[in-house]
Amino acid sequence: MDLKEILAITGFGGLFKFVSQGRNGIIVEGIEDKKRMVAFSHYKVSSLSDIAIFTDEEEVPLKKIFKTIFETENGGLAFGGKIDEKKLKEYFSKILPNYDREKVYVSDIKKVITWYNILQRNGINNFEDETPETQEEQTKEVSENSAE
Fold first, then answer.
1. Contacts of 26 (CB under 8 A, 6+ apart)
2. Which residues face 18 on adjacent strands?
3. Fewer Cβ atoms within 10 Å of its own Cβ: the N or the C terminal residue of the chain?
């Protein structure tokens, strides 16, 4: 599953996957609890692929940060629970040394770690970027299948 399909909804904990378009919004399913709900059109819904973290030079996509956490933790979960702010900032400094300390709040760091752990617990841990070669191969396969 690609991060484009994983959604965060402001005001709701956890992460969701897109199921289908509804009459008044979109139908989503909780990644962990598998419960479905309607995300009404007035909800603020963000795809994880559209979220990035500010650094001193540029914005770094969430997928790249998840990949770094994955590599740092050797494919395991990142620490969670109640951790003091100082330790959170130290940990995030290892993951993204040049993150913008004025624009990235502790709440943002907690959210990134929580989201990573949710994805990891549910077997969604392919944080590799698709190479243009891979995309070309997929396009070719689709074209060949369509021709049959």
1. 18, 19, 20, 38, 39, 45
2. 28
3. C
